[in-house]
Amino acid sequence: MQFDFSSYALGATLYMPIVHHRVPAYLRGELEFPSTSVVLCLEDALAENDVARGIVTLKNLLRTCPINSKTRVFVRPRSLEMGLQLAEFSGIDKIEGFVAPKIVPETAAAWMDLAQSANLRIMPTVESSEFFDPGRITALREALDNYDKRLIAAIRLGGNDLLAAMALRRQSGITSWEGPLAWVLAMASSMLISAGYPVAAPVFDIIEDIETLKREVAQDVAAGFISKTAIHPAQIPHIHDAFRVSGKDIHQAQAILQEGAGAVFQIGGIMCEPSTHRAWAERVLARYEVFGMQEIAGRRLSLEG
To answer: Where, in this chain's numbering, is Mg(2+) bound (predicted)?
Structure first.
């Protein structure tokens, strides 16, 4: 299996309502974006009576804003029908792509066809109750396998909607991996990642509970997620910190990928086997290239120490 780890460059993806008063300034480059990727939301972040205003706002932004920001911009329509409408807007090529809400296997082809025809990328969102069934993840994966994987910036897992399917919501002090979502996160992510798809972790929506956020992102990283949704700029540095790589892992990854490396060797008491660990090593160095090395005692290390 060939893995593409370029989606690490998404970093923390900030969700913003399209009608947020700072969006125009961000897109014009008048304010520096706090994140490396952003989703301008026309779906759950908008009340029904704000939808028309949101569509007009997007149309005006595409027409008048040069989008000077280096941030990667995605738009989340409310439905496939709205996505088809937005794809016809003048200037839609200024954004990188769409977030496909509540995708299911039966709608995957239509979303992928839309992205392909509009020359955009797509971020399918797995958030419907049917995805508690591994068979539905398999069906989605098979539907997506008919398309070039490069069309997919990431597959997002929608934690809040999955919790809502059980009449639950997130609790303070408990990570997603310690609560009722643990099984579905592990199941869905492992089935998709092992098929070569980049998968992004659910939002942590208790803004003031930074310590639990830190623990959760560490668990996300260990599970192979390549990005995490943020709902507040204050979360972004903590998400990025968790994606930084230890010097020990960098050293091992470089040794594993070194030309002429032995079939098996140990570093610091840990077995390294290039034939088995090559993809892990490539993942580690991809993370390092984007996020850098972990800090110790407030000092960010370099490879030289």
So the answer is: 161
